[in-house]
Design brief:
Pfam families: HSP20 (PF00011). This protein is mostly beta strands and 151 residues long. 10% of the residues lie in helices and 30% in strands. Strands 1-2-7-6 form a 4-stranded antiparallel beta sheet, with no helix packed on it. The chain has a 3-stranded antiparallel beta sheet with strand order 3-4-5, with no helix packed on it.
Amino acid sequence: MSNLTRWNPVNEFEDLINRYNRYFGLPATNGEREGKDLFRRTDWAPAVDIKETKEAFVIEAELPGMKKEDVKVTVHDGVLTIQGERKKEEETGDDKHHRVERVYGSFLRRFTLPDNVDEDSIRARFKEGVLSLTLTKAEPAEPKAIEVAVD
């Protein structure tokens, strides 16, 4: 299953810098470079579990407090993308926040699909803040024998 996620160590370093900046009230480091970067930056990333059965791969993403309308799942060129946005609750003048630890904003997770996944049979289910994706395994394609004529 290690072939499902592309890891970019630069993103983790930039995330650390952005957390530091956010803590001290400084602007994020991705200001002018946002449009030029190859990787899209997001505000947070939901926790994901990936498991494999005989028939399928199952991806479960924790999306507490979100609605299914706020989440988009796409597949393109063998890459599964889960993206969306968790919106912050409206603040009223009567509220007095003592601590805010939950993260709000957009997110994006991408997973490279194994060759044996049938992209047309992916099923999604959203229940109680958990997005479950079932990726049915396809039968491996049989190699074709090509007869070579010798002159």
